[in-house]
Amino acid sequence: MAAPDARPSSAGPPPARSLLLPLLLVLLLAAYSLPADSAARPSSNSNPRPAFTPPLLKRHQLRRPSSSSAELVAGPANASTKPFTAHYFPQLLDHFAFTPNASTVFRHKYLLNDTFWRRPGAGAGDDGPGPLFVYTGNEGDIEWFATNTGFMFDIAPTFGALLVFIEHRFYGESKPFGNDSYRSAETLGYLTSTQALADFAVVIRGLKRDLGAEAAPVVVFGGSYGGMLASWFRLKYPHVAIGALASSAPILQFDHITPWSSFYDAVSQDFKSESSNCFGVIRAAWDVLDERGATDKGLLDLSKLFRACKTVKYAYSIRNWLWTAFTYTAMVDYPTPANFLENLPAYPVKEVVHLSAKVNLDSSSTDHEAFA
Ligand SMILES: *[C@@H]1O[C@H](CO)[C@@H](O)[C@H](O)[C@H]1NC(C)=O
Ligand SMILES: *[C@@H]1O[C@H](CO)[C@@H](O)[C@H](O)[C@H]1NC(C)=O
Ligand SMILES: *[C@@H]1O[C@H](CO)[C@@H](O)[C@H](O)[C@H]1NC(C)=O
Ligand SMILES: *[C@@H]1O[C@H](CO)[C@@H](O)[C@H](O)[C@H]1NC(C)=O
């Protein structure tokens, strides 16, 4: 799910359809819960970030889990019924230096669920303590990941596992310098995956010591960047974790290893595999947007079509909004209704295709101009 910083590619539109596209896009977007005014701005927040921030980074930083953020996700997630307890660990700011300030600590948050855990000494047999299943937190509030990682809760009873979710430094409540954490290179210098992995190792070992569970095996889990962290953790700390499960983790998505287009190839494939017609329509949309966006009149028309609260200044704003919709839909094309990045039904890509098919039916008999 680590979308590279790139834009949708565009290709020539099939000319006959191009006037229909705005309507189609409006219909498609009706399926999303994005605020209507976000068309007027590159993103729905006021942070001055580049328009094409990788999606997860953008969303996770902004979003705190709320009671509503999880109502469609299986399992309890209400504020009052969170399936975990929060804890804080005095974490070393710098694991790799020996300067006086390297001993600075910050409050590092982690979550626990011990409901299913086979505690040390609890089992009558020789099984020993149940394992620790540890989520290596990625770029966001850890409660949000815990709420959206049902798999670990699903398998914990079978393994008698203790569930641990560790927050990534500089996110959620684990900001070493509070609100000043992002202020300068001096503070941000401590935000590295290398430091984060060391954090995880320290928390896990401290926890096992405190629980008298030093014999308990540890398996790390993660999704997306968190999955990369899980796999790196297993490689770098093989004495701490016996295994890693990395889900949707682009561990090989680096220059000269994986083609730069691989992320968008996968997004495209998601739509193409549902409907090549829908894929073609979406693909053609980018040029139409640019074409319309080239004139003031076109921008006004686009603003009306997309029901922006203000006239959009650049077609790019709408492009960015659409890009988010298509990309997020593909990234969270789950088989169940979910509310991870957006509130979406089951198989959201199918849903989008379904909407586009309706438009095409209409198109065969309707004056194209009427839609424009
Ligand atoms: C969820 O939270 C709301 C508001 O705090 C509360 O009214 C509701 O009863 C809660 N639901 C459950 C299942 O706990
Ligand atoms: C652990 O998770 C299970 C399943 O969601 C839940 O029923 C239980 O209350 C949770 N335990 C704690 C201590 O939060
Ligand atoms: C070390 O910490 C002290 C006290 O927090 C601070 O005033 C000083 O600037 C820090 N020095 C460096 C090199 O970070
Ligand atoms: C940090 O920022 C948040 C959100 O703007 C605010 O609620 C909080 O009070 C701030 N904390 C401090 C210590 O200034």
TrEMBL record:
<dbReference type="InterPro" id="IPR008758">
    <property type="entry name" value="Peptidase_S28"/>
</dbReference>
<feature type="region of interest" description="Disordered">
    <location>
        <begin position="38"/>
        <end position="58"/>
    </location>
</feature>
<dbReference type="InterPro" id="IPR029058">
    <property type="entry name" value="AB_hydrolase_fold"/>
</dbReference>
<dbReference type="GO" id="GO:0070008">
    <property type="term" value="F:serine-type exopeptidase activity"/>
</dbReference>
<comment type="similarity">
    <text>Belongs to the peptidase S28 family.</text>
</comment>
<keyword id="KW-0378">Hydrolase</keyword>
<keyword id="KW-0732">Signal</keyword>
<dbReference type="GO" id="GO:0006508">
    <property type="term" value="P:proteolysis"/>
</dbReference>
<feature type="signal peptide">
    <location>
        <begin position="1"/>
        <end position="35"/>
    </location>
</feature>
<keyword id="KW-0325">Glycoprotein</keyword>
<protein>
    <recommendedName>
        <fullName>Lysosomal Pro-X carboxypeptidase</fullName>
    </recommendedName>
</protein>
<dbReference type="Pfam" id="PF05577">
    <property type="entry name" value="Peptidase_S28"/>
</dbReference>
<keyword id="KW-0645">Protease</keyword>
